């Protein structure tokens, strides 16, 4: 496995580590005309079709917005996916880093963390992002 295929290699176009921690920020665009946030980055605003977008970053803090549990494939575990809402209103879909019986409540504070997708079929293992219940101080 070459260094470019390490499972811990994050998708650089999508995210960056937040200040040396294990938390991530999502690389997004902000429309200077209507303030819409877009993830991943886009040159054209999906809300007003303007091209006046600038780079911004979302997170790591967000609010749990919705989820669904996808049935297990084969012998695997069910996969929890959902959405989180960031400051400024952007709603982003992603994996939820939680067991099926420990999913955050809607509106609960979550944070963006790395999430390893194991190799499957012809696909290499890769690291994307997930939303995880924000750890409470002292926990
Ligand atoms: Zn716009």
Question: What does this protein structure show overall?
Answer:
The protein is an all-beta fold and 139 residues long. The chain has one domain (3-133). It has strands at residues 15-17, 24-31, 37-38, 53-58, 61-70, 79-85, 91-96, 109-117, 126-133. The protein has a five-stranded mixed beta barrel with strand order 5-6-7-9-8. Strands 1, 2, 3 and 4 form a four-stranded antiparallel beta sheet that branches. A hairpin with an 8-residue loop joins strand 5 and strand 6. The chain is globular, with a radius of gyration of 16 Å. The model is unreliable at 1-7 (pLDDT under 50). Residues 31, 33-34, 36, 45, 47-48, 50 line the site of zinc ion (ZN). The site of zinc ion (ZN) has 8 residues, from loops.
How is the topology of this model organized?
Elements lengths: L14 E3 L6 E8 L5 E2 L14 E6 L2 E10 L8 E7 L5 E6 L12 E9 L8 E8 L6
Parallel strand pairs: 7-9
Antiparallel strand pairs: 1-2, 2-3, 2-4, 5-6, 5-8, 6-7, 8-9
This protein binds zinc ion.
């Amino acid at each position: 496995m070459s260094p470019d295929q390490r499972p811990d290699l994050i998708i650089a176009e999508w995210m960056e580590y937040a200040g040396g921690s294990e938390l991530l920020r999502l690389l997004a665009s902000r429309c200077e005309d209507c303030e819409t946030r877009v993830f991943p980055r886009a040159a054209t605003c999906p809300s007003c079709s303007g091209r006046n977008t600038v780079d911004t970053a979302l997170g790591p803090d967000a609010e749990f917005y919705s989820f669904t549990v996808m049935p297990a494939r084969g012998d695997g575990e069910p996969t929890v996916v959902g959405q989180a809402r960031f400051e400024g209103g952007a709603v982003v879909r992603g994996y939820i880093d939680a067991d099926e019986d420990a999913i955050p409540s809607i509106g609960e504070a979550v944070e963006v963390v790395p999430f390893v997708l194991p190799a499957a079929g012809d696909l290499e293992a890769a690291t994307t992002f997930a939303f995880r219940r924000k750890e409470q101080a002292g926990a």
